[in-house]
Amino acid sequence: ATLLFMATAGADDPRKTVDELKMIFVKMGEPRIEGVEKSGDIIAPVIYFGKHKINNSFTVVDKIKKTSGAYSTVFVKDGNEFIRISTNVLTPRGVRGVGTKLAHNQAYSAAIKGEVYCGEIDILGNSFYTCYDPFKDKTGKVIGIYLIGFKK
Questions:
Q1: Which distant-in-sequence residues (6+ apart) come within 8 Å of 116 by Cβ?
Q2: I need a labelling partner for 114 at 20 to 30 A (CA). Which of 38, 104, 131, 140 fits?
Q3: Quick one: pLDDT at residue 111?
């Protein structure tokens, strides 16, 4: 039911669609970082929502692409960087952009402060209408970002 709602209410609206993405993950459980593993070419912290590991898992982001047409990514915070750990965004080589970092742009500036950013952004060479929504662990520390984008 959630995904069907997202396909209609969230179509081409990054703010509504990122809220739907959040709902899916929140229902899985509380977010936390536990351990590290390889994502793309780098070692990144591992995010769990409840018992569900998000790194290198593409089920949710692929369902969102199928139901709403949205591009979707989950980033993990690693020091002062945000690293893609689950995404349906492809690099120019045609592979998932896991292990790539969020550019230091307006979305980064907002997320590092725990603020939402919605607006136009270049992602891996393509222009998107986006919404970046940081999420926190139970202590209130930003540990990642949800991203929804629609190609311009």
A1: 110, 131, 132, 133, 134
A2: 38
A3: 96
